[in-house]
Structure formats: C-alpha cells, structure tokens
Input
Amino acid sequence: MTIFHGFNTTASALTAQRLRMDVVSSNMANVDTTRGRMVDGEWEPYRRKMVEMQPNENRFSSHLSKAMGRSDHPGNGVKVSRIVEDETPFKLVYQPDHPDANDEGYVQLPNVDPLKEMVDMMSATRSYEANVTTLNATKNMLMKALEIGRG
Output
C-alpha cells in the first residue's frame, strides 16, 4: 500500500512539473507577442503566466489520519491549483515604425523575461528528473521484493 502511495505522489509531481514546463514554453514562445488579447477594445501584449501548486489533500486516508490525531501520514503529492497571469507592467520600447506603436512611438512588449523563464525551466526540469529518479528507485525496490519472494 505504501509503495503504491509513493507511485501516486511521484506521478502527481511529474504531472505538475510537466505542466509548469509547458507554461514556461508558452511564455518563451510569446516573448515578442504584442497582440495577446483584446482588453477594452484594444490589443494588450501577451501576459506572462505562472503555475501555482498546492498539496494534494483530497485523499480519504489523509483526512482519516488527521481525524485520528496522527501526524505521521505522508503527503499525498501536489496538484496545480491554478495558472495565474503576472501583473508586472509591460515593457515600453521605442519603435516608431512598429504597427502597434502608440502616438509617441512606443510599443508595449510582454512582461516576459527570458532569463527568468530559463531559470524556471531549469528548475522544473530538475524537479521532473528528480521525480523520475524517485519513481525508478521505487520500481527497483518492488522488483527486488518480487525476487526475494520468489527465492
């Protein structure tokens, strides 16, 4: 039972980190998108998105453990609670020839910082890899237990 719980916990982390990598990829793909969405009849640049996660506490066993006053119950993994938009102001760049330039010649560019996105991507990738390693270690323990049971 505990080993399968470990599989579920690791699987939830893999899913969450994969979504995080997808969101970072979307941010990088739209680093120069000046027409992201229409707001009050005007185009607004693409707005950076971020993934928010929280502990996955929906399992009956965690509620039962809490009700019994036990704090030794391991976590139930993680889940994505929502994807939020970064409210950092857009960058203004002087490009009077750009089709989206305002009357003064400035263009609003997305609030995406490629350096920050690369750091987020590296973090998500390392976390994903660590969870794959954990999953493989758990799988190897199960295989060794089966070998012991046969012998």
Remarks:
- Helices lie at 2-29, 60-67, 114-150.
- The radius of gyration is 23 Å.
- The chain is about 50% helix and 20% strand.
